[in-house]
Amino acid sequence: MRTDITPGQTSDHLGFDLVMYDNLPEPRVLLADRGYDADRIRKTMHERNVLTQIPMRKTRKIRVGVDHGLYRLRNMVERCFNKLKNARRVATRYDKTAESYLGFIDITSIRLWVRHLST
Q1: Integer Cα distance of 55 and 30 in angstroms
Q2: Max alpha carbon distance in the chain (Å)?
Q3: CB 30 within 8 A of CB 19
Q4: Most buried among 7, 25, 83, 90, by the most CB within 10 A?
């Protein structure tokens, strides 16, 4: 798992590099929302032989299709974020430093993972 923090006014696609250029296993599919619809991201993923499932923005001139059956799996990621935000400290961000906030996100993620393994 890879987590990082960007400033609140930063566009989603700018945080893409922080997550994708790490030593994580090579993904086969990229499921993302409209915030990641950038030609640079699509080109990078195409070069890495990764299938992209990103709905296009309304301003896109070239039409790009999405497999809606596959894109529905993105709901699992959204539910994971929702479960993370059930921890009040994550949702309200009381921590003063980014390091302590990221640490608590990691602790909460581990707690959710262990709970998932025990069921």
Answers
A1: 11
A2: 48
A3: no
A4: 90
Residue of 63, 62, 41, 61 lying closest to 51 (CA atoms) = 41
Tell me: the pLDDT tens digits for 36-91? 888 888 898 899 898 989 888 888 888 888 888 888 888 888 888 888 888 888 88
* Residue the block writes with tokens 């296993």: 25
User: Among residues of the chain, what percentage have pLDDT more than 90?
Assistant: 4
pTM for this one?
A: 0.70
Under 8 Å between Cβ of 12 and 35: yes
- From residue 50, alpha-carbon distances to 27, 37, 84 in Å are 6, 15, 27
Residue 54: CB atoms within 10 Å: 22
